[in-house]
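My current task is to audit a protein record that another person submitted. I need someone to confirm that the token line plausibly describes how this chain folds. Take the sequence as given and treat only the tokens as open to question. This is what I was given:
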Amino acid sequence: MSIPSGRVILGLSYSYDSGAALLVDGRIVAAVNEERMNREKCYAGFPALAIAECLRIAGLTAGDIERVAVGGLMNFPYESGLTTGASARYQLSNLLSRLGLLRLLIGTLPFAYALRAFFGNRFNPVFNRHAELTSRLAGMGITAPVAYFDHHLCHNAGAYYASGIDRCHAVSIDAFGDCFSSRIYACEGGRMQLRKTVPAYHSPAHHYAYVTALLGFTPTRHEGKVTGLAAFGDPTETARILGERIAYSASRRSPFVRGLYQRPEVEYLRTALAGFSREDIAAGVQQVLEDVATRYLRDNVPDIPSTSIVLSGGVAANVRLNQKIRDLGFRDVFVFPHMGDGGLAAGACYAANAGATGTSRNQPITDVYLGSGYTDTEIEAALQASGFEWHRAGQVEREVAEQVAAGKIVARFAGRMEYGPRALCNRSILYKADDPEVNTWLNHRLKRTEFMPFAPVLLAEDAPRFLKDYDEARAIAARYMTVTYDVTDLCKAQAAAIVHVDGTARPQIVHEATNPSMHGILTEYKRLRGFSVMVNTSFNMHEEPIIRTPEEAVESVKQAGLDVLAIGPYMAFNRVEA
């Protein structure tokens, strides 16, 4: 099953937030999710446009692909199951939940393994998508053999091989992946050895999704709103109620769900939590998640603090939890930048390249700028049609810094698009961080309803002044905006816009080698203001994917009434009022 060095592997995520990635000679050279191509948020389906874009970016053809690696053995058509009008499949699962049978089927490992085998892609009698997949690939000229890899193996392979950390434990936690909710691997020397598996029924992610739905948000999309809202609440009573439904089992060394599954549990919680504020409910589920997850890691990851940990899966998107995990004392904590199911395409590439023995020639990532990029000619065409006043800047980084320092909202479009949910200054909106009211009025312009403050971007040299206990040697997760830090008094005084009510911030730390343009902007800004901290929020309107093309950049600037578009080496000025 191992892939000889130099071969080309196409990785696919083919369910929720589908996408594609290309690995050449052990290195991810392109990765794009379908939502960025068709503009349908978290698109679930065959990622035809993403495949074509990855090939274009890499300068390859369909005939160059020698292996297709699919993330997941059970690629069911995606559906949350928490909405009204659920499919027959979810109506059946709700019935089995009420009867107590679902706890047996996906709550015990023997039955979970049996379901995986029965519903796997090649032999699945109900949702056999193998024929559909190979037909769609053939229609694109891709006839390479297709291999399927375990959902959690892909999560963990992505985190381990991308991290550049040789000795660590890889931990994935999500709601449901091939009948499991978590797996832990001991990793060293390019090998991954499975150490722990938790059945899907017993995931703390389920109750986080249930609370997300109860609070009026969309599960799998808006859990981050719950994380932000939690800081405003008191978890005392709500955590007690939720803790009776999802707890930690010391004897099993894993999370353990005492409650029901899907809609029956949502109905129970709606009654049990009636009368509590949204803030208190959010605070309760956040505390339960933190308690359960940190106990799970303490009991199953040996050698703290001499070992590092790499995290993946949807739960790893919870930046407050990641701070609690870091505080356990690991040598370092890395979170795969595309931690959710949308990142399975890259993880499948790594898993396929590692082969059956678990050894690998995979190369770690140095950044996540793996998506679409555009030439100056393409950018100029979009600007000429924009109606903006624009010019080619002599020193674009200096001009951006001057505009931000002057209080202008600057949309930055630079180089290749980021892979994953975080905007890391190639598709970002920048603003000065000393305006505490910016979260209200800029979110209004972007039509967002957010409870987290905007994230900061700053130079590595300034991080210890603004973030408590910052250690550059243990800060790999901070490069990708995947963990929070407590902030210093200086940060509260000079950068109030990026400080949450609980005194934390979710930073992106910039190094010159990773993003020289943004490093230059921050350096110039520091020259003007004395510090390098800016607001960094994603370049998109509410409920839209992050923008990809110059044309989308122009349209978003117009919709939001932003002041300046700094696109490639050009500065464009929007004179239309918001």
